[in-house]
Amino acid sequence: AMGEMAKDGVLLRRYELGSISGDSSETKKSYEENGVATERRIKENLAKYEQTVRSAEGHRLLDNIKTHLDQYLAHRDHGLEVARNGKLKEALQICYHENKASFEVLDSDIAENVKFNRAQAVAAAKEAEKDYYASRDLVFGVLGVAIVVGIFLAMFVSRMIANPLRTMQEVAAKLALGDVEQNITNDSKDEIGSLAQSFREVIKYNQGVAHSCEILGRGDLTIDVQAKSEKDLLSKSFGTAIHSMRETIMEMADSSSGIASAAESFPQPQPR
To answer: What is the pTM of this model?
Structure first.
């Protein structure tokens, strides 16, 4: 905005000179009308610029521009009035001395404000750059922490899953070798816990079958093996085997009784 006002200030001065020293009345009138339009544009731009000023120094500089603009316009209007009254030489004297000095002060104020705005823009850019690097470092820091935490979480979760599975794999390998004295302590409330409970049921089942075999090995045929389901082929076959052994022993017992009875029916030999 200040850059545009600096250009309009130069035009304002040019239109002032043209209004006084123009070749004809029409030319002077055209310059004067352009000067009025430029003056109006400068004041509108000042009003808009004032709404963007935030610092005390900015307001001070703006007040200086307003004050010296009013002083210059007052000198300019006085010179134009003198020229309208036909006193061209006196009007030119005012234009090249009093008005020139007023315009130079105004132009200096505008230049100072432009310099101030540039310094403010540079400071704002540096502050923005500083904020950018701080934000970038913060993002990288948070990202690094997130990666480290993610790695530790992944390792922790992996161990939570892998360790119980490794234990159950070892138990399964020992069961395959006939070692039924196994125990799984995992009792979590997730899928791993459900799998562990299923393994415990398998271990309990194998221990039951092994215990039944042990009793049978001692010659006790009174053991009763109950099948877990219709598809429990092992328990059903074991029960069938025990039942067959019972029947075989009963048949052998009956045969032994018959042989003993037949032997008793033969006459005993007399001693000589």
So the answer is: 0.53
